[in-house]
Amino acid sequence: MTEIKYIGKCLVVETNGNEKKKILVVGDMHLGYEESLGIGGVKLGKNVFNESVEYIDNVIDKVGKTGEKGKRLDDVRGVMGINSGNGMSDEYADEINNIIEKNNIGVGSCGVDEIVLLGDVKQEFGEITKNERENIVKFLNWADEKMRGKGKIIIVKGNHDAILWPILRGKERVEVVDKYIIGGVLFIHGDKKIKEIEDKKVEVVVMGHWHPIAEISEEKGVKRERYKCFLHGKQKGKEWIIVPSFSEQRYGKDIRDTDFDKVFGLRSEKFNAFVVSDKELDVLDFGELGKIGN
């Protein structure tokens, strides 16, 4: 059975069976978008990239604090009675290994086995800007280090990602694919329907691209607020999850005002909206999208 958790703007998919993995899913990042806005005369703060990394870092840390597999180095120190400020020299190596084995602690893991980026990692269609190159390389290096060189980063190509290969030279733990299937879960960008969706072995379809939001009014006809949201529902014998865009600059729109229904033959208003809260990394169930904002 596949377990799904919403943590802020990110999704955690935990597969079971022969391919048991904990996968962090990040929607459309559009790295470099701030540069394209700058060219148009709109200047954004230089901290956009750093804030994005810090956000995902907090998500991974939250995942890592749940379950034995995700226990972190601080927990090992606690088991050993070692202060966090003390160094971990070679003299502790044997003792650490014994404790890891005894307590089943995954020190080599941050709690995440893989990171799946659901496409549109970059912004520009036909070129690679300096900002895109620098930020994508920095992000991939950071993610690899965060997973201690033991995890895999999978980029499911989006319609903005036609030119990626020059950035990825030497990135052995980064895979670029058109779709990714593991443990009955199909990850796609979502800009088009693909034949693998009809595969009977696929139980869950996870996609980005549509940048879903929920529009909520405090009182009828008075002040409408827009919130990023996950859309989650069961239709046509499968479980469907649409992940919000990670980029704050590419906020999103109500999926009912898009061609989503035509592309996938689904009823978007029947999806449940899980709204991303401004508070910490909370996500709130607001019920059926079709009943929100009416």
Description:
The protein is of the alpha/beta class. The chain has helices spanning 33-39, 48-64, 73-80, 93-103, 130-146, 260-264; strands spanning 3-7, 10-15, 21-26, 114-117, 152-156, 174-177, 180-182, 185-188, 204-207, 213-219, 222-235, 238-242, 272-276, 283-288. It has 2 domains: 3-68 and 108-291, Purple Acid Phosphatase, chain A, domain 2 (4-Layer Sandwich), CATH 3.60.21; 72-103, no CATH class. Strand 4, helix 5 (130-146) and strand 5 form a beta-alpha-beta unit. The protein is globular and about 55 Å long. The model is unreliable at 41-45, 67-86 and 104-108 (pLDDT under 50).
Question: Can you lay out the helices and strands and say which pair or pack?
Answer:
Layout: E1 3-7, E2 10-15, E3 21-26, H1 33-39, H2 48-64, H3 73-80, H4 93-103, E4 114-117, H5 130-146, E5 152-156, E6 174-177, E7 180-182, E8 185-188, E9 204-207, E10 213-219, E11 222-235, E12 238-242, H6 260-264, E13 272-276, E14 283-288
Parallel strand pairs: 3-4, 4-5, 5-6, 8-9, 9-12
Antiparallel strand pairs: 1-2, 2-3, 7-8, 10-11, 11-12, 11-13, 13-14
Short synopsis of the structure:
This protein has 294 residues and is α/β, with parallel strands linked by helices. It contains 6 helices and 14 strands.
Distinctive features:
294 residues, alpha/beta, Purple Acid Phosphatase, chain A, domain 2, six-stranded mixed sheet, 6 helices, 14 strands, globular
